[in-house]
Design brief:
The protein has about 425 residues and is α+β, with helices and mostly antiparallel strands. It contains 12 helices and 10 strands. It has a 5-stranded mixed β-sheet, with no helix packed on it. A hairpin with a 2-residue loop joins strand 6 and strand 7. About 30% of the residues are buried.
Amino acid sequence: MAVQEARQGPEPGAHDGGCACGDCPHGAREGHRRAVAAFLVKRDEFAAGQGLPAAVAHSASASRQWVSEELTQSAERVAERGRAEGESWLSRVWQRTACTVGAAVVALLLVQSLTAIGAGWTAARTAGLLAALLVGGALTAASWLHRARGGALAPVIGEDNRLSTSRAVAAAWVLFVAYAVLVLVGRLAAASGPAERDALISGLDLARGAGAVTVLAVVCAIAVLVRRVVGLRVLGQRLQKVRAHRPRAADLLTDDAGRGTFADIQYVVISAVALAFAAVRLARRPDQLPDLPWGLAVVVLVSAATYLAGKYAEGGRPVILSVVRSREAGDLDGPIRTGDDIEIRGAGFVPPGAQSADRLSRMVVRIGAVHVHVPLVPVAGGFSNPTDAVLTVPVPAEVEPGRAEVQVITAAGVETNRYAIDVTD
């Protein structure tokens, strides 16, 4: 449908896509959608050999360069609309946070009301409801204060503008422990006798909540350590990172390319199960910190260690394995000359999350002292050049004959090793 609309053109009076009005049907999201549809139409037309001007149609190299430039400009417009849509989405998170918090408090009230039938309303239920109101109010206030940076999601958004799994898990445990302590505070404020107050204070003893405290300490340390590890690996060019247009819930379970990763999935699932168990224990024993069994606590620690090991193992520096002269059917064999196409074979040329055309167009090959932009070659549904393992670029006339070094610079700014080739006249 989006492609059909792009072929027909925008509706009369439609916005250009730059506005962020919440009730505007042609706001930032609509502008991004239309830009993507227009780009897909243009890419498929070029892949089918349509839309080429007569001035460049006679030359394969000229037509390829012209198509690449046209697609690059269109991709830049898509990226601009995507950034605008991401900023608009972030500015609306605080409203969704307020609605989510309100719904959660209402759900808690309904559950407590249903469970109070027959048993009666207790001080623990009042303390739990008040603690939920305090935590929810704090979340809503913080979300409004940071509404320009994602509201309540701001602490769990990484430097690459994606949701961080380690920070999200740590934030969930912090909120739960804070809620549990507030429940005890409410019970203590409503306690009528010294014996009851002493029992509630003893509920904060480390012996009773050692498992939960240990898990909290470990997940918070993992969040800090993962940030440090990722930062050092990026600076050391051992990990490639590209910035996303906006955070997505799927970031918690996938890598930068959108593929599900075992380390992230198992960490989120096991942490969610442990949190559910701790919540049930708090509901059953609201007079003390949830006594998380050591068996379950060790399972969470093993899951956290697996997640950390996965962060150490992911990524890698791009590498050139070989460079050969690109040969078309019917061409004679020969050495590499200026004007020829060379095929660079290796691995890691396209970083995870850089499969979009605007990121692919930023790839550069340095041949000697000359920087050559990698041309985009469209095919139905994607691009045949560049790919993660093979790049094809022309050798420009500015390259001096003789020994020259070839080096690929990816969209993440990471440089490969240098590979020497011989260029003849």
